[in-house]
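does this look right to u?? NAP version
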Amino acid sequence: MINLGLIGWPLSHSKSPVIHSSALKAMDLPGRYGLYPIHPSDQEGLLRVVDEVRRGNLTGINVTIPHKQKVMPLLDEISTNARSIGAVNTIFRQGKKLIGENTDATGFLCDLNTHFSDLSNRSINVIVLGAGGSARAVVCALVKVASKIFVAARRPDKAKSLVEDTFSGRSGLAIVSPILLDEISLKDITGSIDLIVNATPVGMHPNVDASPWPVGLPLPVGCCVYDLIYNPPETRLIKLAIKQGLGHTNGIGMLIEQAALSLEIWTGMPVPRDAMWSAIRQQPIITDQEA
Ligand code: NAP
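got this back:
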């Protein structure tokens, strides 16, 4: 019996049980994927669930906001990947050790290549909007394939510390620069941009009229838009990309890919993404966005 679950808060609208259960069924593996809502201040609750993995009562566990960083000191080892991102979204046991991994960066990159395969053949210039947890994962993925990455945040110190943390102790191929998320700064660089990634929650349900991209500033000619938001499926930013005839995608593919990569770690088997996609397509339109 494969016993899995998700720690986070809040979790009431999580898509993860549906995604993982459909894959387990398609793989003919008996198992369950439960939800463990742990309040942000409940450190004991967090430890209790992590201990269930240590004792083998849980095969593995996913971690989402607000525990992705807090869980790290409770583990025995953190993968290089998770350490660079500064967050763990997958916990598994190896012998007696508890290991923390992060599948968000690889999940993003796999999905990016699926949607915009032409971008993978050349060195690209990217603007990442936001400097939070998911922006860190996105930048860690993009340093492997991009030439220039601009991290645009409303608080310049946050963008600066993301850039410093991402590059501390290792060299990347890309030049990563922090910039202010405002019209003047973005206008200066739009001439040479191939990809814009929205890693802010701006435009997410219920604030569907908001856009992280300055209203009135056209998107760069010929660029692609990747919005990590998947509810609504077409954010205001995506609608702008459609209006300008640009390539675009939302974050549902990343959600599925990061889940599939976690399940591959726990089962050691290839995971059928199509089962996950068809399960998510049967879901009603979502009213909140959680992992
Ligand atoms: P986070 O850690 O809270 O970071 C959010 C970032 O957005 C911060 O830099 C924040 O700036 C910025 N921001 C928030 N409101 C803003 C505003 N009004 N104007 C400009 N910037 C603003 O959140 P996260 O975990 O990175 O998640 C960000 C989004 O990605 C969410 O919508 C989440 O659901 C989505 N996501 C999707 C997937 C997927 O699999 N598709 C995975 C992870 C996340 P401040 O620090 O100044 O507040």
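Residues 252-267 form the longest helix (16 residues). idk if thats expected tbh
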